[in-house]
Design a protein that fits this description.
The complex is a heterodimer of chains A (415) and B (172). With 415 residues, chain A is of the alpha/beta class. Chain A is 40% helix and 17% strand. The chains are: A alpha/beta (415), B mainly beta (172). The complex binds zinc ion.
C-alpha cells in the first residue's frame, strides 16, 4: 500500500550541442534552480532525499554524483544514483516516485535530477562499450569483425532504429515523406520551447528529404542531435503538494519493462524478436501502468503524450504500441493534424527527443513536460485542458521501456 | 552535397556561449576480459563442418534458437533438445550503413541484413550475395545459404545468402 505521490515542479537547463559556458555540476545546478524557482515556498531544507543519474561513460567522469553533490544541495542527505542507459531519466523519475510512495519516515519530498553533457566526452565510445561484450562472442563464432563493426559504425542506437524503420515502413506501407513529416512536427514545436536544442521554425519536408542517408532508410535530417542538458523533477506527498502549488500532478502509474533485445540477442544467439518494431516491452509497460492508473481506453482518457523518439519512425511506433492509436494508423494522424498542438491528442509539443537529446536527461524530460502540460506551465502549452498525460522512455540494451502516467486527480485503483 | 552544406541547409537558431576553461583528458583503461560459455555452441560448430545446420530448442516454450542459446529467457530453462533446421531462410529485416572507406575516402553502401532460418525462431546477422542490390530486398524475401567450399566449423562457412524464387502468393 503505497502513498499517493504528486509532482509539484519540473525544471530544465538550456540545451545545446556544446554548453561551453558551464561544466557538468553547473549544468545540473541550472536545472535545479529552474525547478525550485517554480515552488517559492520550498527551501532547500525541505528536500529530504535526492535521486540522480546520467551515463558516466558518455562524459568520462566517474561517480559524477559526488562531484555534483554540493551543486545539487544534497550534502548530508540521502543520495542515490540510477543508471540505465537511454532510460536513465525515466528510471530516475521512477526511483524518485518509489522514494515517496514507500512512506519511509522523514522522506516526503524528493528531488530527481537527470543530466548529460555529451560535448564533454565521446558518446559513441560509451555506446560501443555497452555492446562490445555481445559483439565479441559473435566474433568467436566466426562472423568477421568487419560486418560486426557495421552495427557499431554509426552508434549502436541508430543501427537498431534503422531496422525498426525498415520493418515499420513495410508494415504500415509508408514512405520517407511520412517520416519527414514527423521531424517537421517536432522541430517546429521545439522552436517554441526555450530549452530545446534544434529549433527550426521554418523546416519543410523537402528540406529533410534533401539530406543524405546516414543509415538507410534514415536521413541526416531525421536524426536526433547530441545535446548538453539537465532536467529536475520534484516529487512529494499528496498532502504537502497541495501547499506547494495550485495544480499538483498525481503520479497514478509507473512501469519499467524490458524485453529481449532485438538484433544482437543474448549470448550471440540472435534475437527471438525477429520483428524489431514489435516492441513487446512497450506494450507490457503500458498495460501495467494503465492498469495501475485505472485507464481502460488510453486513446479516450489520455490527453497528451510525450514519447521517447530519437528517430521519427519510433515516434509512430511508440504511439501505436502504447495503445494510443491502432496499429499502422499513426502516420495518418500526423497528416490530419490529430497530433498537432491544437489537435485531439497532442504529441511531443516540447520538440521531443528528435529535437533535444541529452541522453541521460531525455527520458526524464518526457514525464517532466507531460506533468507541466497538466499544470498549464509548459513552454509550448497546448490550448486544451490536459487532465491525463503520459511520459515514456526507451533505452537500456535497446529493449527497456519506462512509462509514467500522470493525472490531475488521484485515481489509483489498488489503493 | 557535403555535410557542411547539409548542416547549413538545416540551420537552426543557435546561441553562442562564453567559453569556460577546458582541459583535455582521456581515460586510459586497462583491457577487459568478457567471459562467455561456448560449450553449447560445440554441437552446432561440429555439424557446420558437414554443411548442416542444427539449433537447440527450449522444452518449455518450444522456441528454436540458432545460433544455440544457453538459457531461454522466457522460461528460465536450459534448451537441451537439438533439432535440424533448413539452410533456406527469410530476410527478417535490413538496413544500409553508409561508411567512409578509410583508404579511398569514398562513402560505401554496406548492407546490414538479419535473416531468420526456416525452422528457427531467432534471426541472426548475415551477408547477401555480392550482386544483390539490398534496396531490392524486402522483408520476408526467401534466400538460401551459399556454403564455402571447405567447411571449417564456424558461422563463416555460410559465405553469403543467394535469393531464391518467391512462391508466396501474397507478394505484390
Ligand atoms: Zn523457453
Amino acid at each position: 500500500m503505497g502513498r499517493q505521490v504528486a509532482i509539484v515542479s519540473a525544471g530544465f537547463s538550456e540545451h545545446s550541442s556544446k554548453r561551453s559556458d558551464v561544466n557538468m555540476p553547473e549544468l545540473v545546478n541550472e536545472a535545479i534552480i529552474n525547478c525550485l524557482k517554480k515552488v517559492p515556498s520550498l527551501g532547500l531544507k525541505d528536500i529530504d532525499a535526492f535521486v540522480t543519474g546520467n551515463m558516466p561513460a558518455f562524459e568520462g567522469a566517474n561517480m559524477p554524483e559526488l562531484w555534483s553533490t554540493d551543486w545539487m544541495g544534497a550534502r548530508n542527505k540521502p543520495l542515490m544514483r540510477v543508471t540505465t542507459g537511454g532510460t536513465t531519466g525515466g528510471s530516475v523519475a521512477i526511483a524518485g516516485y518509489y522514494h515517496v510512495t514507500a512512506g519511509l519516515p522523514g522522506i516526503d519530498t524528493v528531488l530527481a535530477i537527470a543530466y548529460e553533457q555529451q560535448s564533454q566526452g565521446d558518446t559513441s565510445v560509451g555506446l560501443a562499450s555497452t555492446a562490445y561484450g555481445e559483439i565479441s562472442i559473435l566474433n568467436t563464432l566466426g562472423i568477421d569483425y568487419d560486418s560486426l563493426s557495421r552495427i557499431l559504425s554509426a552508434g549502436a542506437a541508430i543501427g537498431v532504429a534503422a531496422y525498426q524503420a525498415t520493418n515499420y515502413m513495410s508494415k504500415a506501407r509508408i514512405t520517407e515523406e511520412d517520416l519527414a513529416r514527423v521531424v517537421v512536427h517536432n522541430r517546429r514545436n521545439a522552436a517554441k520551447n526555450w530549452w530545446a536544442h534544434l529549433k527550426m521554425p521554418d523546416l519543410t519536408i523537402e528540406e529533410v528529404l534533401d539530406t543524405p542517408y546516414v543509415q538507410y532508410p534514415l536521413r541526416y535530417g531525421m536524426l536526433c542531435p547530441a545535446s548538453d542538458g539537465a532536467c529536475a523533477m520534484l516529487f512529494t506527498t499528496e498532502e504537502k503538494a497541495k501547499d506547494m502549488c495550485d495544480i499538483p500532478v498525481y503520479v497514478n502509474g509507473v512501469a519499467s519493462v524490458a524485453n529481449e533485445s532485438a538484433v544482437l540477442g543474448y549470448d550471440g544467439s540472435g534475437s527471438a524478436q525477429t520483428d524489431p518494431s514489435a516492441q513487446i516491452g512497450a506494450m507490457r509497460s503500458s498495460e501495467l501502468a494503465y492498469s495501475q492508473a485505472g485507464i481502460s481506453f488510453p486513446r479516450k482518457e489520455i490527453d497528451y503524450a510525450e514519447v521517447y523518439a530519437p528517430f521519427p519512425n519510433q515516434e509512430l511506433m511508440w504511439l501505436e504500441k502504447l495503445g494510443l492509436f491502432e496499429e499502422t494508423t499513426a502516420p495518418e494522424m500526423y497528416k490530419n493534424g490529430t497530433t498537432a498542438l491544437d489537435g485531439d491528442l497532442p504529441v511531443n509539443c516540447s520538440g521531443g527527443v528528435n529535437s533535444t537529446n541529452a541522453i541521460g536527461a531525455s527520458a526524464m524530460e518526457r514525464p517532466a513536460v507531460a506533468a507541466l502540460q497538466i499544470m498549464g506551465k509548459a513552454d509550448n502549452q497546448v490550448p486544451k485542458t490536459v487532465h491525463t498525460s503520459i511520459g515514456h522512455g526507451w533505452g537500456g540494451s535497446l529493449n527497456l521501456c519506462t512509462l509514467m502516467v500522470m493525472s490531475d486527480e488521484q485515481k489509483r485503483k489498488w489503493r | 552535397m557535403s555535410k557542411l552544406t547539409q548542416r547549413k541547409s538545416l540551420d537552426y537558431i543557435k546561441k553562442e556561449y562564453v567559453r569556460t576553461r577546458t582541459m583535455p583528458g582521456s581515460w586510459y583503461l586497462s583491457s577487459y576480459k568478457f567471459k562467455f560459455n561456448i560449450a553449447h555452441h560445440q554441437p552446432m560448430l561440429e555439424k557446420l563442418k558437414e554443411k548442416k545446420l542444427i539449433a537447440n530448442q527450449c522444452s518449455g516454450c518450444n522456441r528454436v534458437f540458432f545460433p544455440p542459446r544457453l538459457v531461454c529467457g522466457q522460461c528460465l530453462v536450459k534448451p537441451d533438445r537439438w533439432v535440424d533446421i533448413r539452410d533456406t531462410a527469410r530476410v527478417a529485416t535490413y538496413a544500409i550503413a553508409y561508411l567512409k572507406n578509410a583508404e579511398t575516402g569514398e562513402v560505401e553502401e554496406k548492407p546490414m541484413v538479419l535473416v531468420q532460418h526456416d525452422g528457427a525462431d531467432t534471426c541472426s546477422i548475415a551477408e547477401l550475395a555480392p550482386g544483390v542490390n539490398v534496396k531490392d530486398t524486402y522483408i520476408g524475401m526467401p534466400i538460401k545459404a551459399h556454403w564455402s567450399e571447405t567447411a571449417t566449423g564456424g558461422l563463416m562457412d555460410i559465405e553469403y545468402y543467394d535469393p531464391i524464387e518467391d512462391d508466396a502468393k501474397d507478394v505484390k
